[in-house]
Amino acid sequence: MIDDILAFQLDLMRVSAQTRREVLPVLYDLEKELFQLILAGGDTIKPRKLLAQSNQAIDDYYAQAQGVLDLGDLPAITTEATKSALASVIPVGINVALPTAGYLAKLSDEVLVNGAVTSAWWKKQANDVKFRFAGQVRQGLAAAENNQQIIERIKPVLAVSRREAAALVQTSVAAVANAARQAAFEENNDLISRYMWLSALDGHVCVYCAARADKAWTADGKKPVGHALPWRVPPIHLNDRCVITPITKTWRELGADIDEPAPGQRASIDGPLADSTTFDDFLKRKGTGFQDEVLGPGRADMWRRGDITLQDLIGGDGRPLTLAQLRAKYA
Predict the structure, then answer these.
(1) Given CA atoms 163, 290, 181, 77 in this order, what sign does their dihedral have?
(2) Which domain covers residue 85, as residue numbers?
(3) pTM recorded for the entire structure
């Protein structure tokens, strides 16, 4: 089951990569428009007029970027994949339940990313760009710089804004998928003994996620098992790629008359992954066909030769995946 969850998480990275490819051109168009507004001012830029025009442009383009990030189908796709993963490690005849369609339909709009809904994050990022843009324009005018010099001042501001937007896209995809996955787990809480935090998806895990790596919480009450860290569902910060995986009850506990298959017949049927297990290990044991399909044959070959590393691959940029392709693969 853990392999199934990791495989789906890798596909989510590919969805994030595809969505970034669709969002970032909108922000490049914004950059062009802002530069044109500066150049249109000629030798006598009027700050009030320029900032009013630029603020409107920033609001418009960020609204457009937010519209590109349409994750309405993602909760349903994620829960179908979760249902399949759970069904693979429980006795035949035990049904896996799913959250209601109504609940899933609202999830993509209501899930929180670091304490705020996605729409609030887009608004915040737009306001940050307006603030930084205005600051650089005023500093350039105070220094009697020409239009091109002011544009050079603004380029780093817009580069930062694109990185922040890319992080928001990735984190939003992760937040919606993790919330949907956890909702599916909760519908089947009677099959689960505890939950475990997996931090093996990134080559450079932050200290907060490293502290939670392989930690467990009870399914009933979400009480820490052998530690004191409170229960949380990732992402707990921007660009967090961690996931929660359930550890199912034994087949005897689930009412089956036989013991579950021996380890190795089904991946991690009960019990955590070894501390030494990494996402690199996961890719290696999936074989060349899986690697080529996910990363692209060229990048996969470079990774197998050691020419590029896990950190070069982790963004999912090898073979981006649309939501429609994700649905076809899992639904």
Answers:
(1) positive
(2) 2-330
(3) 0.84
